Each structure stands twice: as C-alpha cells, then as structure tokens.
Amino acid sequence: MEKPVRILHVLGRLDRGGAETMVMNLYRNIDRSKVQFDFIIHTKDKCDYHEDIVSLGGRIYSIPRYKGVNFFQYMRAWHRFLKAHPEYKIIHGHVRSTASIYLRIAKKYGLVTIAHSHSTSSGTGFAAILKNLLQYPIRYTADYLFACSKSAGVWLFGKRATKKEKFLILKNAIDTKKYIHDHNTRLEKRKELQIEGKFVIGHVGRFSTPKNHDLLIEIFKVVHDKNKNAILLMVGDGELRPIIENKVNDLGLTNSVIFMGVRSDIPEILQAMDVFLFPSLFEGLGIVAIEAQAAGLPCIVSESIPKEAYITDLIKSLPFSNSLDEWAEHILYYSNSHGRSNMQKEIDSSGYDINGTVHWIQNFYLGNYGEYEHRNRYRYNK
Length: 382
Prior knowledge:
The protein has helices at about 20-30, 50-55, 70-85, 100-110, 125-135, 140, 150-155, 185-190, 215-225, 240-250, 265-270, 285-295, 325-330, 345-350, 355-375, and strands at about 5-10, 35-40, 60, 90-95, 110-115, 145, 165-170, 200-205, 230-235, 255-260, 275-280, 300, 315-320.
C-alpha cells in the first residue's frame, strides 16, 4: 500500500479530555506510514492538540455544531464534506449525540462506520433527554460499536447490542513507561511547583459537572482542617472553573489550592502527588485513574468508576453516602509517607499498555479498509 489509510475521527473539540487523549495516544504510537488520522471537529477554535496533529501529518476540518434548529444545515454540511472527500473509507465517531445522523450519512457514501462510547451518562435536564433520544438509533446504524468499558457499552448501545459480534471493547491504553515512578522526578517536580514538604492531594479533569468538583473541594476542606500541611493540585480547565475558584475562595482555601490549568506534563505532575482524588459522578472508564495507578499513586475514587479501572490494589472506591469525614479519613491515611512501587507489570498485564492496543486497532482499520474495497467482512476473534 503506497499511501496510508486515512481514518476520519469525529470529535467535539481537540482538547485534553478523556476521548481526545485516548485517540492521541493511539495516533502517536500507530504506524503512520500505514494508518493516518484526520479529524472533523465541531468548532473552529484552535484546540490543545491542534499543533500535535498537524506535526504528525493529520488534517483537521470543522463542521457546524449541532443545535437542533440547524438539523438540515448539519446534514448538508456532512453531505458536502463526504462528497468532497471520497478518500475516506472508515469513519470513527466519538461524538455520540449526533452519531445517528452523521454515521447514517457516511453509510450512504459507503464508509465503514464505528460508534465509540466513552461515558455512562448524558447528565441531567432537557439537553440530556434530547441527547438520549438522538443516541438511541446508533446501535442499529453503526457497523461497529466500540466502548471503553462494558458499562459504557451497555449504557449507550443497550445490553443486547453488547452481546453481538460487532461490539468491541477498546481499552484506553497508555504508554506505561511515561508513568513509572521515579523518585528524582518527584523531587524535581515538587521543587518546581514549590510544594516541597507538603501533603499533596491531586486531581486531573475538566471542570465540568461529571467530575464533581463541588464534592472534591468539600472533601479537601475537611482534610485541610485536620492537616494544615495539605494542598490540592487541580489540573484542567473548563466552564465550571470560575465557580470552583469562587468556592475555594469562600472556604478560605485560596493559599492551599493550586489551579494548574491544562498541562502537557501529567506524568510528572502525578509523580509529585501523594494521593489521587477522583469523586466523579460518572465515568466511561476514568483513564486518569489508570495513569495514577501506573505512577504508583494511591487513588481514592467514587463508586461510579467502572470496575475495569481497578487494575491494582492502589485504588479504593467510596460511596457517595459516606460522610466528608469518612472521605477525609481515607485520604489522610496517606499523609504519613508511603512508598511508591513500579506498577508497569500490573498495568501491562491488564491490557492497558499502548503497544498491544495499537497493534490491534491498526490491524482492525487495515482489515476494514479491505472490507470497503472487497466487501469481505473483517472479524476480530475476541
């Protein structure tokens, strides 16, 4: 094959979210002489991964964001794009709310279609109801149904669909070598962040409702009341950040909470932490919890984290019904120095190492390119 097969990925934005990071992990490690990734996003903004994608040879296109009232405009935009780009044979959709629209159109142009579930909830309110209605036909539209966990698959596609051959779990793999605990890296990063000698609780996640920052701050308040040496590192950005910043200020925690924004040095920041706190309302998987375990960090997570994320004995889940004092007690257990272990073997053996996943998805794409060309259905022997 002289030219690489170009896979069209559909995302809302290209920021450092869970789905986007998963795709980028695959993209950076795949054999790009054989498989290239291109992207359609629902914004004209220049996003976090824009420069990385261009440097890797990827192309980025934008399409109008779906608002309901622009239904026909949205459809026309997809028709125009696919007519103008017959080079695409495979479309991999990560935007679930409108997947039943764009995947149906893609099938009319002969593309092999993949729908990918990264969550277990659409949230609450009218918007969530509308999303759920739009999402229902996906299970019948897509050629393949991917999910980051069994629970994410059942939620979006239904239990019956997850028993079919076209349903596949694609693990959100990581490059475990980047996360291996290194004491010197820990000391250097703590010095850089001016947190030497502190009890460091950490969180990585977009400032949005699912991440449950309200509870996170309330838990930290109790921890800090009991241990004034505690600080909280919060990595990420999002629409709720100003609200959380105000809450931190109102609780008198301004000098003990560090808002770090979007960062590209997550592996090093994880080294600097003592405990990882992740009280999400819902998660498709919670890949950052796996990254934290890979770094040897104890993880205190909510009961909503799927069981697939429980790779080592470093992770402990707590129910939302627990009191703030109970959450704080589990966190403070680690305030007296605990050793960190190399968890690469455990992560690799669980199937979350990037090398095995990249090998499989590359063969999957190439096999389905053959399906498009020859109409021979590719089958993955699970």
